[in-house]
Automatic annotation (TrEMBL):
Top-level taxon in the UniProt lineage: Eukaryota
Region entry Disordered, spans: 130-152
Basic residues bias (residue ranges): 141-152
Species name: Aureobasidium mustum
The name this protein goes by in its record: Uncharacterized protein
Length: 152
């Protein structure tokens, strides 16, 4: 195979991959929820820190960290910025166990307690549920960016 043919072949394979993952997003709600939640978890501290996550808690590191996922038992080369850390269980001493997002987030049951039936748009639905469960001031305001306020 010539270099040109190899490049064309690679481009075709990439295109096929893109189409496959687009199809997966469209047809598999659990997959879409996982991607949406990953996005939200990376962006919003209150979603990581203030929702009643069940068996594991999302941990966001400033840099990628390599842990061994307790489900796929693969130490990903380069690691991830976000991991799911098993909540302490007093009867067992294996608390340092992690799951990658793909293994932890398999569907709505991975959502926090009381958030399992959230529908899209996810951002709005999460906020609405948080307010419903914890009251109108339960979502921390985003810090305003820009000019510091002048003392009046
Ligand atoms: Zn995994």
């Amino acid at each position: 195979m010539s270099k040109y043919e190899a490049n064309v072949d690679m481009a075709r394979r990439r295109q096929a991959q893109r189409e496959a993952s687009a199809l997966l997003r469209q047809t598999n709600p659990a997959h879409r929820l996982r991607l949406r939640m990953q996005d939200m978890l990376l962006k919003h501290a209150w979603i990581r820190e203030e929702l009643p996550w069940k068996t594991h808690t999302p941990i966001l590191y400033p840099e990628k960290v390599e842990h061994e996922c307790s489900s796929c038992v693969v130490t990903r080369h380069g690691g991830f910025k976000m991991w799911w850390k098993r909540n302490p269980r007093p009867d067992q001493d294996d608390n340092e166990l992690y799951k990658c997002h793909k293994c932890y987030f398999t569907g709505p049951e991975a959502m926090p307690e009381g958030y399992e039936d959230i529908k899209e748009p996810i951002t709005r639905a999460l906020k609405a549920r948080k307010i419903e469960l914890d009251g109108p001031n339960s979502i921390p305001q985003k810090k305003k960016q820009g000019r510091p306020r002048r003392p009046s």
